[in-house]
TrEMBL record, chain A:
Superkingdom of the organism of origin: Bacteria
InterPro entries: EF-4, EFG_III/V, EFG_V-like, EFTu-like_2, G_TR_CS, LepA_C_sf, LepA_CTD, LepA_IV
Catalytic activity: GTP + H2O = GDP + phosphate + H(+)
Any one GO molecular-function label of the UniProt entry: hydrolase activity
Main localisation: membrane
NCBIfam families: lepA, small_GTP
EC class of the enzyme, as a word: hydrolase
Protein name: Elongation factor 4
Subcellular localization, as worded in the UniProt entry: Cell membrane
Enzyme Commission number(s) of this protein: 3.6.5.n1
Domain Tr-type G: 17-198
Keyword annotations of the record: Cell membrane, Elongation factor, GTP-binding, Hydrolase, Membrane, Nucleotide-binding, Protein biosynthesis
Amino acid sequence: MSPMARTAPVPAATDPAIIRNFCIIAHIDHGKSTLADRMLQLTGVVEQRDMKAQYLDRMDIERERGITIKSQAVRLPWELDGVSYALNMIDTPGHVDFTYEVSRSLAACEGAILLVDAAQGIEAQTLANLYLAMENDLTIIPVLNKIDLPAAQPEKYAAELANLIGGNPEDVLLVSGKTGVGVEALLDKIVRDLPSPVGDANAPARAMIFDSVYDTYRGVVTYVRVVDGHLSPRERIQMMSTRASHELLEIGVSSPEPTPSKGLGVGEVGYLITGVKDVRQSKVGDTVTNLAKPAAASLSGYADAKPMVFSGLYPLDGADYPVLRDALEKLMLNDAALIYEPETSAALGFGFRVGFLGLLHLEITRERLEREYNLSLISTAPNVEYEVTLEDKNVVHVTNPSEYPVGKIAAVREPMVSATILAPNEFVGAIMELCQSRRGVMGGMDYLSEDRVEIRYRLPLAEIVFDFFDILKSRTRGYGSLDWKADGDQVADLVKVDIMLQGEQVDAFSAITHRDKAYAYGVMMTGKLRELIPRQQFEVPIQAAIGSRIIARESIRAIRKDVLAKCYGGDITRKRKLLEKQKEGKKRMKMVGRVEVPQEAFIAALSSDESKDKAKK
Amino acid sequence: MPSTLPLGEPAPADGRLPPSAVAGSRDRAFGLYVHIPFCAVRCGYCDFNTYTAAELGGGASQASYALTVERELEFAGGALAQSGIAQRALSTVFFGGGTPTLLPSQDLSRVLQTAKNVWGLEPGAEVTTEANPDSVTPESLAELARAGFTRVSFGMQSAVPHVLAVLDRTHAPERVPLAVEWARAAGLKVSLDLIYGTPGEELSDWESSLEAALTLEPDHLSAYALIIEDGTALARRIRRGEVPMVDDDDHADKYEIAENMLRGAGMSWYEVSNWARTGEDQCRHNLAYWKGHDWWGAGPGAHSHMGGTRWWNVKHPAAYAQRLDTGASPAAGREILDETARYVEDVLLRSRLAEGYLVAGLQPEGRHAVAGLIADGLIEPADAFKGVVRLSGRGRLLADAVVRRLLPN
């Protein structure tokens, strides 16, 4: 058993030979943060009394949802065979929406711990990240976590892991982040098995940005991995993609609180502070160099974040529009992937069209806006970006059904994804049925183990952004997992379906769908709205239309009675309170023309039935 | 389990009223409500503050109840005088419940006599008691008339046995004509209360009940939609699926039937749920609630109003008696309405009356809403042109929606 390091190697003067850079690849809930916390504790960088569960996940939402959105890096001292090592643990985002961020975190490491729940086995996103790690030539240390659980099946899943990455099931480490069993052995194995970083200490400085975070007090904190050369405090650095230069106000390492150092050398991982206020000036994947002695070429692998899913965000109370605008401005400082522009909806008033990396990114952003800025929001059905070619050869990009051109369309292209689904083999039929119904084309199927399969499909992105994952979960009793990545586009026969209340188009309910599904969408949406919109003082026809052709109709009968007969024995106070309650209820209504539509109707109409059923359970 | 009281500020133990309640009191009509919180059985739909002998237990007996109420009336006389409220004779007195006629008529007469001693009765004052058809006799009604009662309001509810059964009403339908005849013989005006929308009530059942009521030629008739109140036995039975839920469309159909049949019989609506044969037959006490007049409400859980101050008594008869035993006000809480609340209540209450609400009295939002209400057929156009917001037949069924449109958001 290794002792805690007595003397930690000093940053800026650490021989690359005693550095180990690693990350942990794991699925949500497989215990990554708990394991990381245990490592912080065992290496002594966090005192027992300072431990709060899941130290590395800073945001409340992350802690509540048990997922890591923003990665960070922590330098851990560890001693083996009398030598003190510096271990840099780089925490990676764990969700499919953040694939690019994950790939950059991986690029900062030489090795990865593949952490899998011993009771659940590997999941699709883990598999995808594992694939990225292997592409980056990382050394993989397979680990089964939560072996303390009664339901753990270490033999079964060790065999599965060995089957996937090669090697023997006996090489798989068994740990419990919760009890600490096996964690010291893991730290030892990291030192023994992972290669040390290699770089040219005398070359011009090159450091890769793998994360940047906005801090209210310090401005943007940029996390880097130095590949070549050396970065020192007070020198001027340059971002190679934008050529922007900044003074290095502070440089240091996290252990886990930021600790300034005399710089960072080859193979080291740490943070930079330049005083910039916007994470867009410190882009993930970009290369930092020295302005006075710049590198000739940047490190490979940089790409701009590209939003895939678009949704309109509207304040329920129109007066909150400025609050929403300020809130988005602030969030943007910390989220380079977030883009938005003002948008006006006839039904919902003033709001923003916001681009996200994926659905989870949308949900998290919406939740943060509501929680941190005390906003009540309506988000419209998520959309993908369509490329519409008009007959006059002009091309328009449409991220909102209301911008869909009228008539004279030559062709529409929609973005495609390749999706990987892992599930127990008993659900293969259900999964195939779901994917076929979503216009998917099967790419192949493999058995990961005796009873677990990997199914690959190419699907239109539009078919998975809405409710696909929820339905997959419910049809596989929670066992199915999904990973996807962008995979070009295709021409499709798409139409726009409009929904009208009392003859007035409600843009929030419009949808771009495949022609074969337009009728079903129309019937579904008009039927839902009939249930969701309360009866009004007049009859409200609800219609679905493609252009001027009505494809479905429903009607809400006029309300006939809205009066309380009694006066409750002179209790007028009670009657007035009832009125005030009714008026409060009315405030939660959005006016569409003269029709009062409750906020719940927007939310419920835009969510799927299957996922709603699931929520009820 | 009777309905809950509102939340308000604490009421002073001496019953003293704020200066705002005093201002202008000389010119306001003044009424008295006496609550009799006893019933032989509790009806399944009722959430009023009333108790059966079994529910009540010891400490607050029906026998001593009249004495306790009389003590409150004497307390009231003192509190009003001390507050500087103008001394006025009563325009109306109303005994409600519960079942007032469960008390011996001598008890009711005594309480009325005490009220007369404290305040006096205006000439031509209206004095009503509610009654169950099976808790009156020719003698008891005659005695009430002798004591000064002028009106009796019978809880007929329905003429159809299966409907009465769902309502847990114990009286036999054939008892109602007798009770009405005795009341007439005693010289009392007669009002009948009907309930529509009981689970299982067919449209034809409701027509039968209206017909039966009209045959008796009442001077006044109230028709209330049955409201399923939380916490009542009926609400539980509906939740368990033992009786069907009734929808608002059924209520609307029945309201329209009532309006047509009552109008056909020569009666006119003067408030959303109330019809009278002539203007003289309208219930002035009832009107006083809608017009925001002053009244003292005596008895447990009773509500009072005096110039924009509302208060309500403690609910349980035992707690109520205890307060009065110690000479303290039985009020549990009160509310002093500000200008905004007074306006809201004024629109809320008066707009339900056939006499309507003066457009000139409305704030700008309300005046702007008038044209839309005409367009939607919710108020009478001819009256609106004359400056009065008066509900149309359809508007009466949507009166709460009309009020919301007349009031600022």
